[in-house]
Write a structure and sequence with these properties.
Order of helices and strands: HHEEHHHHHHHHHHHHHHHHHHH
Shape: globular
Distance between the termini: 10 Å
Structural class: mainly alpha
Radius of gyration: 22 Å
Strand order of the largest sheet: 1-2
Number of strands: 2
Strand content: under 5%
Length: about 525
């Protein structure tokens, strides 16, 4: 099985090279991209199954270098599960983009550029998840960020270039902080291998540990869009093409969350900043959801809810018990899938109605009942209504916090409930206006206009674009993702059991000796 691990990174990179060679042949590029991500999904599923059966993580020392001096790729249940989920999301969004590109003659997402960049983005995400040392984690971030710079500016419109510049500057600042933290950690310990650092960081003075700890937390908080370092996200994501926005919203911030979970549980168990994380998580939840309530454009509403729900993950990480970490892992998986699905549904709304402003879109319940259903199911899931996965994840998180029983935990639970209710309000208000409100030409009650007039000054509140046909493959990929969101509920038992195993494993930092034993010849 160890021979399959490097393929998680090399396959997408090779696929990107082949797609670039066939830049003028769209069908070849599409075939290469779909085949590459399908193979990656199969490999990740095999690795997850093998680790589940054997109970042993898989580690690969690249080029046979002795540990801890070489690059180590490390796949445990957590990493393999995230690679499986990421592969599903990347494949579904790819199919969505193929349909969009074919219908629009690739005006919005130029296929010669899109497919190589998309596969490089996938390689960076997978590399970050299986990195066994901090520097390789940094490399994974840089690979996905370079690709994301290209994807976020596809089409070269003024708004996309402006948003891309902000995104690039913020990402570079985060990368510089991360690289500086790696340099400082190496200077203090002589290693960047995570298993080695788990022992050596504990030998440093408390103040030194705290400084190194905070440097990494700040760097990862920018990438994860945690308040107050989330200012860049709501203006950056909505301007990109629909498939790009969907995959960014679903995956990129979660790579930052993953890095925080790894470093907090494996490297800094003795350096406790849980109180700071609890305060930050509460601010992230509340500020993010209040931003969503004040928006009139669907992609901006979802971008703010994306920020607010990152707060739940940081909340679980700050609680720090095995149960809380299990809930955090489950909620992270839930959010990757549900948030991506919602953005795909909004992409369908934009094509059908010619706008994503809830002040402009009307009557879609009659005009497009399937799209109405595809939006409604993940929306109430994200809002946390039972029995969906959003409710399961939040309930488990709140239960873990209440078991700790400190006053700040009660405050966070109340904040989480309020955030969930406001999320449901923002998404259902959009549903009511866009789907239930009568279409133009039909009678509309004056008080409806009065009730929503306060949103007239919100960004992109009056944006109107042309209506476009919706290819079947775009609808089919969105239907498939809605099915995956429902599977999180139907199969919540075994999935949550897996997350509980992950939560317990995260509280047991790996020693360098254990890592050497996990390296297969």
């Amino acid at each position: 099985m160890s021979s399959l691990v490097p393929l998680l990174v090399t396959l997408p990179l090779l696929g990107a090279a082949v797609a670039l060679i066939f830049g003028r042949r769209r069908k070849v590029q599409v075939g290469v991209s779909i085949t590459t991500l399908t193979l990656t999904l199969a490999i990740a599923a095999m690795l997850l199954w093998n680790i589940e059966v054997t109970g042993q993580p898989i580690a690969v020392s690249v080029a046979g270098w002795p540990i801890p001096y070489g690059i180590v790729l490390y796949v445990d249940q957590f990493a393999s599960l995230l690679v499986v989920v990421s592969s599903i999301v990347l494949l579904a969004v790819l199919l969505f983009s193929v349909g969009q590109g074919a219908a629009d003659n690739d005006d919005d997402t130029p296929v010669s550029i899109f497919h190589p960049s998309y596969l490089i983005l996938a390689a960076g995400i997978f590399n970050a998840f299986i990195a066994g040392d901090l520097f390789n984690l940094y490399v994974g971030f840089e690979i996905l960020l370079v690709a994301s710079y290209v994807l976020i500016t596809l089409g070269s419109t003024e708004s996309r270039i402006r948003a891309g510049v902000v995104y690039i500057v913020v990402s570079l600042v985060s990368s510089i902080l991360f690289l500086a933290a790696i340099a400082a950690i190496y200077a203090a310990t002589g290693t960047v291998n995570m298993a080695d650092l788990a022992q050596k960081l504990g030998e440093l003075p408390d103040q030194t540990q705290l400084v190194l700890h905070l440097m990494l937390v700040v760097a990862f908080s920018i990438k994860a869009a945690i308040f107050p370092l989330s200012f860049w996200l709501p203006d950056s994501y909505p301007t990109a093409p629909a498939p790009v926005t969907a995959v960014f919203a679903g995956l990129l911030t979660k790579v930052g969350v993953y890095a925080l979970i790894r470093t907090e549980t494996e490297l800094f168990l003795d350096s406790d900043i849980s109180t700071i994380l609890l305060i930050v998580s509460l601010a992230t939840m509340i500020v993010g959801v209040l931003g969503a309530v004040a928006q009139a454009e669907l992609k901006r509403i979802l971008s703010f809810t994306l920020v607010s729900h990152i707060g739940y993950m940081i909340f679980g990480l700050a609680v720090g018990t095995a149960g809380a970490l299990a809930a955090t892992v489950y909620y992270t998986i839930h959010h990757i899938i549900v948030q991506t699905t919602l953005f795909l549904a909004v992409g369908l709304i934009e094509r059908r109605a010619g706008s994503t402003s809830i002040l402009k879109v009307k009557g879609l319940m009659k005009a497009a009942p399937l799209i109405a259903l595809l939006y409604f199911i993940p929306a109430i899931n994200l809002g946390g209504l039972p029995p969906f996965s959003g409710f399961i994840g939040k309930f488990a998180l709140f239960e873990s916090a209440l078991q700790v029983g400190t006053p700040i935990m009660y405050v966070l639970v109340v904040g989480g409930i309020v955030t969930s209710l406001l999320t449901l309000y923002a998404l259902m208000r959009a549903w009511n206006l866009a789907f239930w409100r009568e279409d133009e030409g039909e009678t509309e009650e004056p008080d409806v206009v009065d009730r929503i007039s306060y949103l007239g000054g919100a960004p992109a509140a009056t944006t109107q674009t042309e209506r476009r046909a919706i290819p079947r493959i775009m609808t089919a990929s969105t239907v498939g993702m809605v099915g995956v969101t429902l599977a999180l509920t139907v199969f919540a038992g075994p999935i949550y059991d897996l997350c509980e195993n992950i939560g317990e494993a995260l509280l047991t930092p790996m020693s360098i000796g254990q890592l050497e034993q996990d390296v297969e010849p």
